[in-house]
Amino acid sequence: MLDKLKSNFLYKFLFICCVWFSVMMAYSVDAVFARDSKYTRNGSGPMYWMAYENPYSTNKAIPEDRWKNNVDWIAEEFLPYGYDMVSLDGWIEGATQTTPNGYVLKHNDNWQYTWKEWGDYVKGKGLKYGIYYNPLWVTPAAVNDSSKTVINNPNMKVRDIVNTETTTTDWNGVTLPGDRFVTDQGENSLYWVDVNKPGAEDYIKGYVQYFKDAGASFLRIDFLSWYQTGRDGGLNKKVGNAHWNEYKTALRWIHEAAGDDLTVSLVMPYLQNHGEVELKFGDMVRIDEDVFNGGWDHVSGRSQTWQDAWSQWKNPFQGLTGFSDIGGRGQMILDADFIRMNRYGSAAINDNERRSTISLYTLGGSPIAIADQYDTMNNTGSNNERFYQNSEIIDLNKLGLVAKPIYKNANPFYPGEGYEEGTSRDTERWAGQLPNGEWIVGLFNRSDQNATKSIDFISELGLTGEAEVRDLWAHEDLGYMTNYSADIEPHDVKLLKVIPRNSRKYEAEGASWIGTKFNNNHAGYSGFGFVDKFEASSVPNNTGPKVVFAVEAPEAGSYWFNFKYANGTGGESSATVYAKDGYNKTITDNTSVALPATSNWSSWGNKNVELKLTKGLNLITIERTPSDSGAFNLDYIEFTPHWGNLAQNYGFETGDIRGWTQWHPSGQTAAYGVDSNDVQSGKNKLFFYSPSAYKQSLHQTITGLDDGTYYVSAKVKRQGTRPATARMEVTQHGSSDVYANIPNTSGYQDVSAKVTVTNGKIDVGFYVDSPGETSLQVDDVKVTRVSLQNGSFQDGFRGWTRSDMALTKINYDNNNAYADITSSSKFTSDLFRYESLQKGTYTLKAKIRRSGSFDTAGLYINKGGQKYKNILFPDNSNWTEVTIDNISLTQDEVVKIGVYAEGNPNAWLHIDKVWLEKN
Question: Cβ(26)–Cβ(320) under 8 Å?
Fold first, then answer.
């Protein structure tokens, strides 16, 4: 759907087409690698409002007062839900007033205020600012004004960077002088910058900087296929001159000027070679037609067939499916265009379609862009805001979800080798993983009759047992299941959260594929497939093929991962593994991993790798770099995030004491070492020993911890007949030191301690004071959290789901964070999280205070989809501790922990320090 017909004309069915290359030429490409900006590393696209509907309906620029009314409305009604940006759109030929460098001053000459003044206003409302303009455009007003000079080039006229020697025929058949972006504007048609002329780079980069200086954090750049191809398939005619050779240069300059300060949104791209150029230089890319009149026609209708032109696909179902292999973190945000909820009508089936639209956009990682206005949102008589304001679904966007359709085979979804239309990917069944390992599943019914849709968690998601299932539109826990099936009404959806009951696997087919691709042509894999093509790139010195996993770690520290791979080359292969946070800061440096040969490509091996992770989001990359050898396929990576070991080098597998600090008295010889004799597990162990008298300790300090309760344990073996002191020491955790004595043992025994951390760190060590001949062996040191992560809300709502975002916020008492639920009207709110816990008996606690009239308010814990235990909160405006004890759980049981409140106007509830302790 053409991204805004952005000129002063109504243009409803625009299909930009280029037929210069054959299909096989267009899609026979080497690995394509992406810009990898902070925006693409975030995964899903922004949530914002776009000024499309009014100019589309009136065929002229949005009036300034209407723009303001919409900005104010979004700040009031949608900012609390996370819609944090507003953007202008299209119909820009009426902007002819320019700066001395030829840059347009404002959105339209009839507007009073400039780009910068509106940027300041939008920022003052707590919103981000988006601008619609193409830096390759030059208004004729600047070309015809000899006083306008190119930025940084005072002796160069703006007219000098456009091509005035050629001619362009507009779509009315009128021949215009110069290289123009033609519509129906005649002599007012904009010029294209000639990137081959001196000063062009300065002009284009200066334009980008000009918008950044105006406060924009988002730039929507339109009509790119017109610039590249010079053709319009909808009109079946030329719409200007083609710029095949200049296109890459132009986008590169924009990319360089944007940096990490500006989201680059590429609109109406031809996407030649499956987005080869756009991937390198953009953050967002349009993958289907404009919304136009919206409704189910936009989301699922129109042509279902691929074409070798803009837009290759006509609707979001086909577009998001067709380009799903280039979406995901570090690659590309797939933009399905805007949503007009008011265009679906008032019949029951239209609500089905509204649910499906939000679900599809969320699963595809698309921006959720509201195009309804303050006075059109509910013109069907419905409360259409509720579809945009489903907090459980908004959370998925905030967590960066980018799912994929279920792939049936490795064949392309578009014409090419092995292509059979509709056979390679299922547009109606989607699955993706969140950084905490939970799955999100979407089952759609695009047909006009009821249809049964199913998914098997074991065979298709790779789970090894039951999972807790929640319906995100019904807001209902459905209990433990190994599969799900439902009879779905026409145009409706079932959107599910699937929480694995046991350790977390991250399936490679659900990750971001960069230079790699899906396959299922070998047996023995987990889930619905694996990722192959981890082999040497055919492009000299090119970045190697890789897969990027988004993984949430509960604490900073080292974690063991198991990689499941196949290497049928007959010899050893290798991979490079590293981890970065969402800001591209390296957490684990490049680590070379040897992958021994498996007997064939259907035989899978396991490789354990220790990675250092930061607290929160980590992007783990497995790459086949030019320095690596051989080839391999990747099935999944696995670790257990909720109860991970926080100790570094806890098994001394590095062969030394890396991560630890040793001490012994001055003048005494060191009495410790690491070797491979008599180990408890793995390859190595730590030992203390000297035939003479000695004192020796080894310590490790772990920082950045949430306050709460921790277990410290180790496998130890002490031998020697002379009296000595040997102990595990746990100190510097904010309360009294804990010493656990280690007696003589015939074999390895457990030593453990339970401590409360109140200052964000803990020091763990081992100490021996011996008259000689005392031997102490240490292996498998563990530091594990036994209470909830972010239970004190110091990290905002990380890890928590809110049923109503607008009611729940974070407040502070002297830098101490707490959750605040309140409203000026009657309200219902639920604040909850899921945890996968080990077998045992637990106690759940929280500190609360409340005031005002509540129908009910309390702390609860659910298991098996049913309320297990709960306790009501007392009416007390002072902080009070409430407790639920004797919570009995089986091994790896998923539980839901939450606070529920039904309050009357101006009642308030504060929650702090929610924690769960294993008894």
Answer: no
What's the CA dihedral at 276, 280, 281, 284 to 10 degrees?
70
Backbone phi and psi for residue 302, each to the nearest 5 degrees, phi listed first: 60, -165
Q: What is the pLDDT of residues 624-680, one digit of tens each?
A: 999 999 999 999 999 855 446 788 889 998 899 999 999 999 999 999 999 999 999
Q: Calculate the dihedral angle through the C-alpha atoms of 836, 579, 509, 554, rounding to the nearest 10 degrees.
A: 10
3-state helix, strand, coil in the chain (%, to 5): 15, 40, 45
Q: No. of H helices and E strands in the chain?
A: 16, 56
What is d(CA 271, CA 287) in angstroms, rounded to the nearest whole number?
9
User: Distance from first CA to last CA of the chain, Å, rounded?
Assistant: 59
Burial zone of 435 (CB within 10 Å; 0-12 exposed, 13-18 middle, 19+ buried): buried
Catalytic annotation, pick one of 89, 222, 779, 830: 222
Closest CA to 685 of 718, 710, 730, 640: 718
Three-class SS of residue 847? Answer: strand
pLDDT tens-digit series, residues 427-468: 999 999 999 999 999 999 999 999 999 999 999 999 988 999
* Distance of alpha carbon 641 from alpha carbon 623, whole angstroms: 23
User: What are residue 121's DSSP bridge partners?
Assistant: none
Least confident of 49-53, 378-382, 495-499: 378-382
| Choice among 283, 288, 290, 830 that is catalytic | 283
Helix (H, G, I), strand (E, B) or coil at 525: coil
How many of the other CB atoms lie within 10 Å of CB of 583? Answer: 10
Q: Could you identify the residue written with the tokens 């490409």?
A: 29
- Any catalytic annotation for residue 222? yes
- Classify each residue of 520-536 as buried b or exposed e, where b means 16 or more C-beta atoms within 10 Å of its C-beta: bebeebbbbbbbbbbbe
Strands 762-770 and 725-731: antiparallel
Query: Which SS3 state, helix, strand or coil, does residue 712 take?
Result: strand
DSSP annotation of 213 reads H
Beta carbons within 10 angstroms of residue 301's beta carbon = 13
User: What does the alpha-carbon distance between residue 852 and residue 910 come to, in Å, rounded to a whole number?
Assistant: 12
- CA-CA distances (angstroms) from residue 701 to 647, 766, 777, 785? 9, 12, 20, 15
Burial class (CB in 10 A: 0-12, 13-18, 19+), 630: buried
Maximum separation of any 2 CA atoms in the chain, in Å? 104
Residues 409, 424: Cα–Cα separation, whole Å: 5
Strand partners, 898: 832, 860
CA gyration radius, the chain? 30
CA–CA dist 157, 706 (Å, integer): 60
Residue 716 burial by Cβ neighbours in a 10 Å radius (0-12, 13-18, 19+): buried
**What is the spatial distance between Cα 805 and Cα 14, in angstroms, rounded to a whole number?**
38
372 tagged catalytic: no
Asked, as a colleague might, if the bond just before 311 is cis with ω within 30 of 0, I would say yes
Is residue 71 within a helix (H) or strand (E), and if so which, with residue range? helix 64-77
- Find the helix or strand (DSSP H, E) in which 281 lies: helix 272-281
Residue 170 pLDDT exceeds 90: no
- 226 phi, psi to nearest 5 deg: -65, -40
CA distance 754 to 784: 10
- The string of DSSP letters for 305-369 reads S--SBSSSSSSHHHHHHHTGGG-BTTTBEEE---B-GGGS-SSHHHHHHHHHHHHHHHHTT--EE
Give the model's pLDDT for residue 771: 96
C-alpha closest to that of 102 among 158, 57, 156: 158
Using one digit for the tens of pLDDT, what is the confidence trace for 396-424? 999 999 999 999 999 999 887 777 777 89
pTM attached to this predicted model: 0.88
Rounded Cα–Cα distance for residues 738 and 726 (Å)? 13
**What's the token pair of residue 388?**
């945009």
Three-state SS annotation for 372-417: CCCCCCCCCCCCCHHHHCCHHHHHHHHCCCCCEEEECCCCCCCCCC
